[in-house]
Design goal:
Structural class: alpha/beta
Number of domains: 3
Helix content: 25-40%
Number of helices: 19
Oligomer: single chain
CATH superfamily of the largest domain: Aminohydrolase, N-terminal nucleophile (Ntn) domain
CATH class of the largest domain: Alpha Beta
Distance between the termini: 10 Å
Length: about 625
């Protein structure tokens, strides 16, 4: 849920760490801190608030040194304040730690340490962990590397940690379980972070720590990696396929707007190389060996959270329509605790932008234990879901910095569409004519997204009318019901306006009571599927004074006569309309949030990568 940065080498560590923390601000946080090692010991600087607040606090303090660790914290144990901010020190002040994740048995460890005379300053589980490492190191007379290994054998929970020791100015220890750590390899220097964005400026060679691994990172030596069970591992160096310009704003005022406008490219990138230009056959290399398993599956269970769950709902329509395979879409956080019935003939498909979503990972682990085939769709190369699953497909959205997901959502839908089309064609449940028409349309959909983006100025004017309302209702049917849910979520996330998404027909079963002349209703009314039914729902809204914003197919006249505002999208097959209808809803949320003075890239209380329960 938070950001980790570290450096050891010959350069000054503080500027590198601060720049890295700024690059990780998209992850969401409420305090920040650094620990810098030099000949005087460990200088620890931390502050509630943003990285800028930390910089102001540290401006007149000693931050010199060539080794350091930095952290942005999203509060779990203890309120956001300076004391609870990371890094945390051991009782003797000789060790410093930063930590992502949650130590579940921290309370019992804390009680045992208190009985030995340890005292604690913060409310965090992290401070308990560094005291445990200190206690083992002092009593067992072992190195910091060994003390960390022994301590983690006693720990229950998830973690990515980096630990440094006073006087050891060329080395720190890193470890992970359930929360990502990437180590950047330089010349006589190393960088460490919770993802690659702070590292790419300095090196494109990285090592991803696996679950249960501990690394000794010494600037003058090769990486040493062991498991908690003390088994030595050989580091594998990956080459990053990431460029610095992809994590900059590129002239846009916000990452979110940039990423909305990147969707034609990200859709094209996700399609590239996956449709044979001559035969039009879909080839998803990651899952090709498991096509037969999917075709023979009794059902597909899609597990996801948030926006990815909405993409999964669209996937349900796609797989059932094209491949005639029963699909269940589950919130991963509920699925993992429900004692679900999972069979070996099931395929469990996880969707996650980050590939690190804790609840989704836990749901996959449960499904794997039950013998199901587990597949993944995610955006971040080298993340945990690709390593856990039997197979899967990456989206090619590129780095998504804005907390509110936009291009990740559309590319997830593109991959789901490709999968469903490919399986449907192989099974023979989708006719050749329909298949080729849909594939042709999909190959051109990025051009239609470009056209929808040209409605931005119109949407900005609509946003002016509704920026001060307190509630919104979003309605859709069929393929666009999940889009209504996603549109409402976007508005909630970044503008803090209460919004609800509903199937349009369900409006009569409760939400209609809310409708008056103060209530804006967004209706997705494309001229497909249940169009006449949606028109009837619109008339019900108008009869009660509701203010209507409609997403319609270009050339529509019926809805235009009823709605207060209409946003047109190009005509396309119903199954592909979510790739178009969600664009105006993203722009509407963006402009309303901006007009309300909200931080659209870093909405309050939210984090980009949800690595805790």
């Amino acid at each position: 849920m938070c950001g980790i940065v570290g450096y050891v080498g010959s350069k000054e560590a503080y500027p590198i760490i601060i720049k890295g923390l700024r690059r990780l601000e998209y992850r969401g946080y409420d305090s920040a801190g650094v620990a810098i090692g030099n000949n005087s010991g460990i200088s620890q600087l931390k502050q509630k608030g943003k990285v800028a607040d930390l910089e102001a606090y540290a401006a007149d303090k000693d931050s010199s040194g060539s080794i350091g660790i930095g952290h942005t914290r999203w509060a779990t144990h203890g309120v956001p304040n300076q004391v609870n901010a990371h890094p945390h020190m051991s009782g003797d002040g000789k060790l410093s730690i930063i930590h992502n994740g949650i130590i579940e048995n921290y309370a019992s460890i804390k009680t045992a340490l208190q009985a030995k005379g340890h005292t604690f300053k913060s409310d965090t589980d992290t401070e308990v962990l560094i005291h445990l490492i200190e206690d083992i190191k002092n009593h067992e007379k072992v190195s910091l590397f060994e003390a960390v290994r022994i301590a983690l054998a006693e720990v229950i929970g998830a973690y990515a940690i980096v630990v440094m020791e006073e006087g050891l100015n060329n080395e720190f220890i890193a470890a992970r379980k359930g929360s990502p750590i990437v180590i950047g390899v330089g010349r006589d220097e190393y960088y460490i972070a919770s993802d690659a964005t702070p590292i790419i400026e300095y090196t494109n060679e990285v090592v991803y720590l696996e679950d249960g691994e501990i690394a000794r990172v010494n600037s003058g030596e090769e990486l040493e990696i062991k498991t908690i069970e003390n088994e030595s591992k050989t580091p594998y160096i990956h080459e990053l396929e990431l460029s610095l310009d992809t994590i900059e704003k590129g002239g846009f005022p916000h990452f979110m707007l940039k990423e909305i406008y990147e969707q034609p490219k990200s859709i094209l990138d996700t399609l590239r190389g996956r449709i044979n230009p001559e035969t039009k056959e879909v080839k998803l290399g990651g899952i090709s060996d498991y096509e037969q398993k999917i075709m023979n599956a009794d059902r597909i269970i899609i597990v996801a959270c948030g926006t990815s769950w909405h993409a999964g709902l669209i996937g349900e329509y796609l797989f059932e329509d094209f491949a005639r395979i029963p699909v269940e879409v589950e919130y991963a956080s509920e699925f993992r605790y429900r004692n679900p019935i999972i069979r070996e003939t099931d395929v469990v498909l996880a969707i996650s932008q980050s590939g690190e979503t804790a609840d989704t990972l836990a749901a996959l682990e449960l499904a794997k234990e039950k013998g199901a085939t587990i597949l993944g769709i995610c955006n971040v190369v080298g993340s945990s879901i690709p390593r856990l699953t039997h197979a899967g497909s990456y989206t090619h959205a590129g780095p998504e910095i804005g907390v509110a997901s936009t291009k990740a959502f559309t590319t997830q839908v593109v991959v789901l569409t490709l999968m469903a089309l490919g399986i449907g064609k192989e099974k023979g449940t989708l006719s050749n004519t329909d298949y080729h028409q849909l594939i042709t349309e999909l190959e051109l959909i990025h051009e239609k997204v470009e056209k929808v983006l040209k409605t931005n100025d119109q949407i900005e004017e609509i946003a002016k009318e509704f920026k001060d309302v307190s509630n919104f209702l979003y309605l859709g049917r069929g393929y666009n019901f999940p889009v209504a849910l996603e549109g409402a979520l976007k508005l909630k996330e970044i503008s803090y306006i209460h919004a609800e998404g509903y199937p349009a027909a369900e409006m009569k079963h409760g939400p209609i009571a809310l409708i008056d002349d103060e209530m804006p209703i967004v209706v997705i009314a494309t001229k497909k599927g249940n169009y006449e039914k949606v028109v009837s729902n619109i008339q019900e809204v108008k009869a009660r004074g509701g203010r209507l914003i409609a997403i319609v197919t270009e050339g529509d006249k019926t809805v235009k006569e009823l709605a207060d505002y209409c946003i047109e999208i190009p005509n396309c097959f119903e199954e592909l309309t979510p790739l178009l209808t969600n664009i105006p809803l993203q722009l509407l949320s963006y402009h309303i949030a901006l007009m309300r003075g909200c931080n659209v890239d870093q909405p309050r209380n939210l984090a980009k990568s949800v690595t805790v329960e």
